[in-house]
Amino acid sequence: MRYYPIFVNLENRSCLVVGAGDVGKRKIRSLIDAGAGFVSIIDTRKADEYIQSLCSSKTVNYVCREFQESDLEGQFLVIVCTSSGTVNERISDLCAERHILCNVVDQPEKCSFIVPATVKQGDLTVAISTGGQSPAMAKRIRRDLQNSFGDEYAALLTLLGRVRPLMLALHRETTSNTAVFRSLVNSDLLETLKNKNLDAAKEILKESLPEPLYDNIPEMLDGLI
Length: 225
Fold this sequence. Notes:
The chain is of the alpha/beta class.
């Protein structure tokens, strides 16, 4: 199956995780890290110390009982991590009826979306999917890619994020702004950040940025080198 790749904004969205075993805990953590507005957790086991620590946040709630159909009310996204095929299929079917995004871990045929393997550096996220054919292959590719993206990628994205509003404030033509960002991305800036070469980074920025922003260069690089 071919999937349509998409990154979902979970801000102010309610998400549900059914099953809080080892896999469930990783899924819960990933939702929290992605900024989910509220995460509900349902499991028949008593919450352990890790789950209790997560529930110290007002945006996370744990309920110790069996799943109920009413648990789906108001949910934007559901992740199912139980060991019961019957429970998994029931939740998947109920989500389909309600047009709720649903992922059943390790059972792509019961999912309306799958969670790709990812490589992350700061705001950079690289997603890998094998269309559900081989999660193991996706994880292998992720391991290979982790060696290709170091901390300098996170630093460069932070820098570009600082440059963007300053460029927009100059009210230049879009084509001019595009040329500046292409110049920065295709320059040796990434290498200078990797090597912590402050002087070289400053020179590259002066070569690429319009003169009105020269005085902002120190604050652009602050904390990155």
